[in-house]
Design a protein that fits this description.
By secondary structure, this protein is mainly beta. The chain has helices at about 10-25, 235; strands spanning about 1-10, 35-40, 45, 50-60, 65-75, 80-85, 90-95, 95-100, 105-110, 120-130, 150-160, 170-175, 180-185, 195, 195-205, 210-215, 220, 225-230, 240-250, 255-260. The chain is elongated, with a radius of gyration of 23 Å.
Length: about 270
């Protein structure tokens, strides 16, 4: 029996639809997708005043679900990919638990170390422990003996706010080569920034927009930089004079632009 884990931050049902579509093209799924569950809240902020918190795991299905809980320090590499490491700076309980149908249980979180001058970031992982189910003759065609058990995993950010939070970011660099434009966004504050989107708009010399591409935003942790890129079709690129970059958070926007040379377009 093979397990497939699906990390979520939004709705579990969206993931169910995506995974089901992929799996049905490759294998026969032994049973209906695992019972639904939810985590509330989806993020947590701790500080010098709020040193503990609670996540609620809610079983909305008709069967008991078992879970394994873990916590990791959360960082990002130079490409914006999430990186995790073991940590002893958080205390949480329980590490393994069961939630009965239409019930909920609490996961309690606490700080072992006090907040500092820079925000500390962690993630709490709540992972379903799959329970294999027997396949009946009615469930599967003849000669099919194995199925797939899908196990879901939620990953909740935990932010430990700095003593004096300062949220700010800049477009550190905009460059273009081989028809690909890249904007490097740098977090210049001491707390995380969550971008809603980064939009690239290519314009001709007369100001007419010839190209537009919006890239979904994500977290930029304190002190880090993340590149956002968009490919520009060659036939359009050669007609462009500028590319504007518009990055937005819930509270505001930061803009920049690049003068386009034909040598920057794909050869």
């Amino acid at each position: 029996m093979k397990n497939i884990f699906c990390g979520l931050e939004a709705s579990i049902k969206k993931c169910v639809i995506l995974m089901a579509g992929v799996l049905f093209m490759a294998v026969f799924i032994s049973q209906a997708i695992a019972a639904d569950f939810q985590i509330q809240p989806m993020t947590m902020e701790l500080s010098s005043r709020v040193k503990s918190g609670v996540f609620s795991v809610i079983n909305t299905g008709g069967e008991k679900i078992d879970f394994q809980v873990s916590a990791k320090e959360w960082n990002q590499d130079e490409k914006g990919k999430d990186v995790y490491a073991d940590t002893k700076e958080l205390v949480f309980f329980p590490k393994v638990m069961s939630v009965e149908p239409n019930s909920q249980r609490a996961i309690r979180i606490g700080l072992r170390t006090p907040p500092s001058a820079k925000e500390k970031t962690y993630r709490l992982f709540v992972q379903e422990i799959p329970t294999p189910k027997k396949m009946t003759d009615a469930d599967a065609p003849k000669n099919i003996k194995a199925g797939v058990t899908i196990a879901f995993r939620f990953s909740m950010p935990i932010f430990v706010k700095p003593l004096k939070p300062q949220e700010s970011y800049v477009i550190d660099k905009i460059e273009m080569s081989n028809g690909a434009v890249k904007a490097v966004l740098k977090n210049t504050g001491n707390a995380h920034v969550k971008l809603r989107a980064v939009k690239f708009s290519g314009k001709a010399a007369d100001g007419k927009e010839l190209f537009s591409k919006e890239v979904a935003g994500w977290y930029i942790l304190n002190g880090l930089s993340i590149p956002y890129e968009a490919a520009v079709p060659k036939d359009i690129c050669e007609k462009l004079a500028t590319i504007d970059v518009d990055s937005r958070t819930e509270s505001g926007a930061v803009n920049g632009n690049l003068n386009v040379q034909k040598s920057m377009c794909a050869q």
